[in-house]
User: Fold these one by one.
Assistant:
Number 1:
Amino acid sequence: MSDKPEKFIDENGLRLDGRKLDQIRDVKIEVGVLARADGSCYLEFGNNKVMAAVYGPREVHPRHQQESTRAIVRYKYNMASFSVEDRKRPGPDRRSTEVSKVSREALEDQVFTEYFPKSAIDVFVEVLQADAGTRTAALNAASVALADAGIPMRGLVSACAFGKVDDTLVVDLSKDEDNYGQADVPIAMTQDGKITLLQMDGHLTPEELKTGLLMAQEGCRQVYEIQRQALMDHYAKMQDTNKDETEAPSVEEVVTAEENKDSEDVTTEAEEVEEEVAGETDEEKPEIKENAPEEEKEEEETDEKIVEETVEEPDTEEDDSHE
Ligand code: CDP
């Protein structure tokens, strides 16, 4: 683990990783990456790497969890043992249980659960690489995966933290800022700014909390734009693929085309035979043009006679010699 930095913000007002106070880390989103999930999303938030998979609406197991009037939403956050610097003991622990609970609550209200009574919508998030802010990264991925699964929702949920370092408010804490800072406040919001998750670790004045919320709101808005764009790009790509598929010939069209092709081949073969026969006859026929003038015809006939006579000459000579 790295040591506590002397200063978090330099004289130019930049943070340790060169970001401005209100600048979030780079976000990359890929939608529909898992073939066996109903919806999925791979997301990078700075150095955080998470994978979210959504299954459902589907039957509830165990049955006693089922709700007669709505679907239940289940959320499982898991940190891979290799995702952190010091290997994490595999399996659930108090932290992952807490993160799973608050994340489920952050998403559940956005889902039209009443459309799917007695069923379950399962969200699984695996943290592959952790670098502070994994619960917010996981929520962003889960929200996109739910949309990818076609689950009816009121809107997307976008998440981003703010905190305090060197008595200054900053958005989207880095690892050192999270570990050694004065406060860490992960937030999740709906598109219209309704807060669905707010946790606080550390100390803030009411004023700082208000200002920080506005900073996080702007961060969430930026994340939302990236989520939305990723979904739009994914569906545009899918539409192109579907278009190609619809343009492909149907089975009937293929069969008809094959039949036509066969009959064309037969015609061609017959034609070839005819052409061959016609060709042989043509070779045998003397080349007399039908409309050729009489003189030309006569000349040709005379030429033929001369050839015949020339061929017969040796025979005559031989006969003569015998005599
Ligand atoms: O990840 P998030 O900020 O949502 O949760 P946290 O409990 O504040 O954890 C902050 C960071 O500590 C994580 O992102 C990890 O990088 C690190 N951590 C760790 O190294 N080992 C753990 N068992 C848990 C967290």
Number 2:
Amino acid sequence: KRPKPDSRPKSEEKPTNPDRIDDKWRPPPTITEPGSSPETYLTGRKLGKGGFAVCFEGRTKRTADVFALKVVKAKVEQKKMMEKFRTELQIHAKMHHPNIVEFLRAFTIGDHTYVVLELCPNGSLAEMVKARSCLSLPEVRRYMIQICGGVKYMHKRSVIHRDLKMGNIFLDSRMNIKIGDFGLAAVMADEQDRRTTLCGTPNYIAPEILSKSGNRGHDNKVDTWAVGVICYAMLMGVPPFQSKTQQEIYTKLRTLEYEWKIDSKNYVPQQAKDFVASCLNLNSAERPGMDELVEHEFFTMGAIAEELDISTLKASPLWL
Ligand code: ADP
């Protein structure tokens, strides 16, 4: 029986909206930034598309350096989308960390706004995990350490990402993690500040975001929850609460209904299960912060992959 189209989980999908750039749209072959010391970019292949943006490769004429050009419509009908984009730029521009996609600049030409970002040529974690079905423990440790490092940096600066998921975590040319898409990020005014907007993607959403009772809001521990979901998904190939419908996902996560289906191919040590369980705590106050997470025994009980090459996008590393 086919599920109704509107009841499918929108796990890694982006919602359609009228302000998104047409699929067939391509940028002109060269783009010259406005301003006194303009850079000219030669545009290249399409890298991907999101809820409202399309990304293309862009090479500077002067230095031949390659970047990702994220393009959005300059005039967006929906006020909410405009705000999303504005916060995204403001927050992202302040983030400078080896595991966060570097934001270089943004400018508008005609009907389009271009955001120049560090290029992540090896796609997202979502694509790699899909191709590999699950990753080896030394790889998971390496990626998790890098993810926690990037998130720790944000949290130190009072930024909550709020949309951490494998589709928003990219890989650079040396297979290093680069966290991107700050479209749902928020700045916390102080320790007591709690956000009350519903945001996130079903599979990665923390229970307190769903809870209507009392609406006590959420804090940076929603990112800890997502980190736990990501770790489980890298080890098992699918997110822990994966279900046919969004409602089923929500029911499962509210009751912590997930299991470790272990077979001969994917041995998961107790320390990894403990790591995930500590993140997937229904009580957000009991979830560890990033400082605590990076100290977890899971990272010290076994090998961490140091160098990984791009063959690991499609196949297990040779040492396995
Ligand atoms: P949106 O804000 O509309 O969700 P995203 O930021 O997710 O858009 O970007 C859309 C797609 O473009 C991504 O899924 C990815 O395929 C590609 N992309 C985004 N940023 C980069 C980057 N820095 N390097 C390479 N590809 C990228």
